[in-house]
Amino acid sequence: MSKFLSFLAPFMQVYVSCQKASEHWNESYEQNLLQFDRYCKKYFPETSLLSQKMVDGWCHKRDTETNNSCRSRIYVVASFIQYLRNRGKTDVMMPELPKKERRTYIPHFFTDTELMNFFRACDNLPSAPRTSDQRSKKITIPVFFRLLYSSGIRTHEARMLRIEDVDLYHGILNIRYSKGHTQHYVVLHDSMLELLKIYDAAIREQRPQRTYFFPARRNTFHTRRWVQTNFRELWDKYNSSHATAYELRHHYAIENINRWTDEGFGFDAKLLYLSKSMGHSTLESTKYYYSLVPEMANILQKKTGIDFERIVPKVNYEKSDE
After folding, report:
1. Which of 74, 182, 233, 301 is deepest in the core (most CB within 10 A)?
2. First-to-last CA distance in the chain?
């Protein structure tokens, strides 16, 4: 039985399949599309044609929502309607997405002890796993989270890496499915490259026909929930503070910037490299981190006369709990 129940079910199924095939699908979209489907089924049970009234009724901002939560809820519906319009299946206008609000957010600052505790937990999963999934988890977890830590890539970028995206000869990641679907490349540290080679040899024995570098069941990639659940479980084993896997990305940026204070300057080149490596669409996104590194902010102000803490406030430009 189809999980979609309204008259739009056949179109929704094909839409989701197309998005997945083009690697533009995120499993977080699914629940919102299902909710729109249930809304259509409940309030328009006899209807067989999508109308502007239906879309506007669902997509209006609710009293309990912020702009950002409303955007998250209706984004996939807007994308679905655009899909239908492009194929001549509807003339309904796309809903206007509320303007994105910036929110105050300061990421967790990892201590050396916290990180040692976390990776100790990663390295000490049960030594005698009984199932194929448990055996795969034991060799995947330590490598997956070390990749996040050492490269600064987003969690979904790591999850969706395909075998061909990981060049184990030159040590380069091809990040095809990035934020805004912008492709970029990441050069691996030598120690991380060696670890990936060891992992690749081990996982090939378990999943010789895998498509994704970090394979899940049914030859697909791991879900967002898989990252959240495993990180939280392993983090909480030895640490009492709150942190998320995504904040390893923030840590990567801040640690790189901290090292610049002792390596001479070369500011422009280092800024550009960090920005490209992290897949930022603009340098302004990278400059955000200067407000989190007081020493660097002071050095920049002395050398350039620019107060980065003033022009780049502490705001959330890409917070995620993935």
Report:
1. 74
2. 30
In whole angstroms, what is the distance from residue 227 CA to residue 248 CA?
12
Q: Which two tokens stand for residue 245?
A: 């896997």
Phi, psi of 15, deg, nearest 5: -60, -50
- CA-based radius of gyration for the chain: 22
- Residue by residue, pLDDT tens for the chain (322 residues) are 458 999 999 999 999 999 888 777 777 788 999 999 999 999 999 999 999 999 999 999 999 999 989 999 999 999 999 999 999 999 999 999 988 877 666 778 889 999 999 999 999 998 777 788 888 999 999 999 999 999 989 898 999 999 999 999 999 999 886 655 567 888 899 999 999 999 999 999 999 999 999 999 889 999 889 999 999 999 999 999 999 999 998 888 878 777 765 555 555 666 666 666 766 666 566 666 665 555 555 555 554 554 544 444 443 444 444 5
